Amino acid sequence: MTAHRRTLIHGWLLLLPAAVLLVGFTHYPAVATFLDSLFSTGTVIRPSRFVGAGNYRLLLDDPVFAKVLLNTVLFALGTVPAAIALALVMALWVNRRLPARGLVRLAYFTPTILPMIAVANIWLFFYTPGIGLLDQIGARFGLPGHNWLGDTDTVLGCLMVMTVWKEAGFFMIFYLAALQTLPPELFEAARLEGAGRWVVFRRLTFPLLMPTTLFVLINAVLNSFKLVDHLFILTKGGPDNASNLLLYYIYETAFSFFDTAYAATLTMVLLALLAVLGVGQFLLLDKRVHYR
Amino acid sequence: MMKAVKTAVLGAVCAGVLGLTAPAEAKTELTMYYPVAVGGPLTAVVDSMIADFEAANPEIDVNAIYAGNYNDARIKALAALNAGEPAQLSVMFSIDIYDLIEQDAIVAFDDVVKTDADKAWLESFYPALMENGRTLGKTWGVPFQRSTIVMYYNKDAFRDAGLDPEHPPATWDELAEMGKKLTTDDRWGVMIPSTGYPYWMFGALTKQNGQVLMDADGKETYFDDPAVIAALDYWRALATEHKAMPEGTIEWGTLRQNFLEGKTAIMWHSTGNLTAVKKNAGFDFGVAMLPASVQRGTPTGGGNFYLFKQSTDAEKAAALKLVKFMTSPERSAQWSMETGYIGISPAAYQTQALKDYVADFPPAAVARDQLEFATAELSTYQTGRVRKLLDDAIQAALTGAKSPEAALTEAQAEADRLLKPYR
Amino acid sequence: MSRPAPLETAAAWLLAVLWMAPLLYALWAAFHPPEFAVTFDPLARLTLDNFATAWERAPFARYFLNTFLLVSLILLGQLVLCTLAAYAFARFAFPGREAVFLLVLVQLMIVPEVLIVKNYATLSQLGLIDTIPGVALPYMASAFGIFLLRQAFKGVPVELEDAARVEGAGTLGILWRVYMPLARPTYLAYALVSVSHHWNNFLWPLVVTNSTETRPLTVGLAIFGAPESGVDWSVISAATLLAVAPLVLAFLLFQKQFVQSFLRAGIK
């Protein structure tokens, strides 16, 4: 057996166990989901049949889907930039000689290690009208109570605030790491030139952090499509789907309505969204971020 | 000779041991999923009832699994069946019946009961509680944890507002009027929950307005009937016009806490909360039937026992035994006292324990008395979807996103589309 | 770096307090009797009753055990599978390697819970519904883990491998004796990230588990706190604290390593 052949065989053998699971739980289901989306849901009484693009046409007529898709996009737009901006501010603060720096960093980071389910339980108390913390504080200042989660105008916003709180500390870590690799000489030079702090940030720090920002941005958006745990506790997607998100709708369709074909169709939409972002990441980051 | 005797004795001992152990080895194992949808440590009550059953029937082993809310229980039980895991019976939502039939998951009790006594047992429950369990001419669900909606009210708040605490609102007009009087800066007059189970609360309002939500075959809905639209108009008006209820949706889960904190003078809620309210209320409270528009009315609610198809005859017989035990007058009385759910048969209210309890705590009988005006809970083919349509329509109207008429007309059109294949 | 202005310091602190507020509230509600759950009275008496009630009402000990078994099993599987695969990608030049690596990276975008419907069906065919291995299986071949370890292995000088080979070590021997020890910091980082992620994971375990014997803490907590059962703030807060306590304690004890790990895991 030649060395080359041995390398080949050993390489594939090493890869095999991981490959089986990866194909089994990522690639195969992705393809199978696509095939499922071309058939109707079968029950014992009415067997499944080929419907072609029928399920996709249903999507277009489904007002809940339109709302859910919009919510998913709004949720990403509302949480990601805010969380990233906060994360950057946090990182800049914690990176300086702040009194009690360790404690502050701890406080910022703690939400990251709490389960979303537990967090949602606690935040439910904040938002409950009348007896909740938000309304209690408001009442001190003579403000009328508000039905935060029961109002279609505020519910998604409330969930966004909670998500920003949960995620910002996580993104802060990436910025902290990046800040520590920035060359101090540059900043020394800028100071000698008499540049103000804002100018230093705008002209020096922020551009230097750009690769990190892009990296965090893509990952944050990818992640935001998967964040639905809190809906199980807080709103179940209500009122009137005002806080419903795509992955939760998939769960509902598959496991409450038992409509696996339509769930597969919805999953294809989610996959398409993720794919667009994935390709974006590949093109953008390959150039700007050095994966070493 | 001695040897022969020894052998004989040994043989007899062995046979005796075998004889003793044989029934134990032939133990029938049952797996049952059940949900809990209201307050209090109900899992402990179920566990103790199961333990009593096992003590009385040593040849049957029961594995009772708490599976979360009604939705979870149905998902879990069906998932277990699809995965080939054993489950012979479950307590599931009474409205799951059509889905379970469509999935070919359950058998009708009529096909399992053999003796006349069993057949009589099947007829022993309150008829209103059987409505959701019967279709296609058969009985598929036997009532267990069943409830209706009742009106809890804070008598102290009534006194505070100059109202007679022994005269709770009996009509829609009174509810609106009293609700308005009861509302202060710090307290709402009335709250009707509109998350979790909005269609259920709405079923009460429509019945009171003289119209049910669906036909008896689960193939037709009446969401755009004028009386139904008027019911939603009224619900919304409680907030917008009468200012007796907060605008937007009201959370099912936190409502009890609101009531206990005195933040609302009246709440509509499941009877299943009665025991929890009784334990925790720091004020004088009353329980009344829901008010009437053209008549009184409430849907029944809660969970039924179902028997699964994929089981042996011995398992089915054991499962039937368990269901009969759990629904016997004594158990039903115990269950009712510990939870606030309704005693499911007239016989349950004839037990001494429940008689004494009702005499001592009259609110416990309100739900039973209300059964006279009860109707089935919304249940159709594609029930999850149809229910969500109505839930969304109600929430859209209550949050002001759509008019009640527009919301319900749209929901009806969509429901027609979903149900057409079944007609 | 410079010391910030007082105003900035105050702002940073204020944000820190805000960020801790939910946890502080949970502490308040959990350690006081239920009547103080929504009323803040500094004189309210302290109690452990809520913890006792929570512990009594749901099998939290079992949930803890399940979560512990689950995260251990996932981690073990990940360490083995990802090590092998990463080694192949880092040091074996076989045709199609780059293409296969790209296929692996797909999982960074499409995590198993996105394909929840189909993966559930697969698991059901394998007869693994309602088992802890069933929950663990889809996560064992982690693209993230393969990616991290491949980077670490690439940084190992080839001369070390050659030296070991001269001494007669085989493929796995080299991996075990040369590569794995040198990648220890990466392993630690990955382990911490993996454990904290799966300790908190919810949707997939919710779908797969049916019974007390398999349910992890997050699912148990969600069922326990399901608003259907009427929210009892104090007891739910106590249960919530119970569920997060091990991770938070571990985090407090190993704060530095934690942050370093996340840095390491994230930056590469």
From TrEMBL, chain A:
<feature type="transmembrane region" description="Helical">
    <location>
        <begin position="12"/>
        <end position="30"/>
    </location>
</feature>
<dbReference type="Pfam" id="PF00528">
    <property type="entry name" value="BPD_transp_1"/>
</dbReference>
<keyword id="KW-1133">Transmembrane helix</keyword>
<feature type="transmembrane region" description="Helical">
    <location>
        <begin position="261"/>
        <end position="285"/>
    </location>
</feature>
<keyword id="KW-0472">Membrane</keyword>
<keyword id="KW-1003">Cell membrane</keyword>
<feature type="domain" description="ABC transmembrane type-1">
    <location>
        <begin position="69"/>
        <end position="279"/>
    </location>
</feature>
<comment type="similarity">
    <text>Belongs to the binding-protein-dependent transport system permease family.</text>
</comment>
<dbReference type="GO" id="GO:0055085">
    <property type="term" value="P:transmembrane transport"/>
</dbReference>
<feature type="transmembrane region" description="Helical">
    <location>
        <begin position="154"/>
        <end position="179"/>
    </location>
</feature>
<dbReference type="InterPro" id="IPR050809">
    <property type="entry name" value="UgpAE/MalFG_permease"/>
</dbReference>
<protein>
    <submittedName>
        <fullName>sn-glycerol 3-phosphate transport system permease protein</fullName>
    </submittedName>
</protein>
<dbReference type="GO" id="GO:0005886">
    <property type="term" value="C:plasma membrane"/>
</dbReference>
<feature type="transmembrane region" description="Helical">
    <location>
        <begin position="106"/>
        <end position="126"/>
    </location>
</feature>
<keyword id="KW-0812">Transmembrane</keyword>
TrEMBL record, chain B:
<dbReference type="InterPro" id="IPR006059">
    <property type="entry name" value="SBP"/>
</dbReference>
<dbReference type="Pfam" id="PF13416">
    <property type="entry name" value="SBP_bac_8"/>
</dbReference>
<dbReference type="GO" id="GO:0042597">
    <property type="term" value="C:periplasmic space"/>
</dbReference>
<protein>
    <submittedName>
        <fullName>sn-glycerol 3-phosphate transport system substrate-binding protein</fullName>
    </submittedName>
</protein>
<keyword id="KW-0732">Signal</keyword>
<dbReference type="InterPro" id="IPR050490">
    <property type="entry name" value="Bact_solute-bd_prot1"/>
</dbReference>
<feature type="signal peptide">
    <location>
        <begin position="1"/>
        <end position="26"/>
    </location>
</feature>
<comment type="similarity">
    <text>Belongs to the bacterial solute-binding protein 1 family.</text>
</comment>
Automatic annotation (TrEMBL), chain C:
<feature type="transmembrane region" description="Helical">
    <location>
        <begin position="187"/>
        <end position="207"/>
    </location>
</feature>
<dbReference type="InterPro" id="IPR000515">
    <property type="entry name" value="MetI-like"/>
</dbReference>
<dbReference type="GO" id="GO:0005886">
    <property type="term" value="C:plasma membrane"/>
</dbReference>
<dbReference type="GO" id="GO:0055085">
    <property type="term" value="P:transmembrane transport"/>
</dbReference>
<keyword id="KW-0812">Transmembrane</keyword>
<keyword id="KW-0472">Membrane</keyword>
<comment type="similarity">
    <text>Belongs to the binding-protein-dependent transport system permease family.</text>
</comment>
<feature type="transmembrane region" description="Helical">
    <location>
        <begin position="127"/>
        <end position="149"/>
    </location>
</feature>
<dbReference type="Pfam" id="PF00528">
    <property type="entry name" value="BPD_transp_1"/>
</dbReference>
<keyword id="KW-1133">Transmembrane helix</keyword>
<dbReference type="InterPro" id="IPR035906">
    <property type="entry name" value="MetI-like_sf"/>
</dbReference>
<feature type="transmembrane region" description="Helical">
    <location>
        <begin position="233"/>
        <end position="254"/>
    </location>
</feature>
<keyword id="KW-0813">Transport</keyword>
<feature type="domain" description="ABC transmembrane type-1">
    <location>
        <begin position="64"/>
        <end position="254"/>
    </location>
</feature>
<keyword id="KW-1003">Cell membrane</keyword>
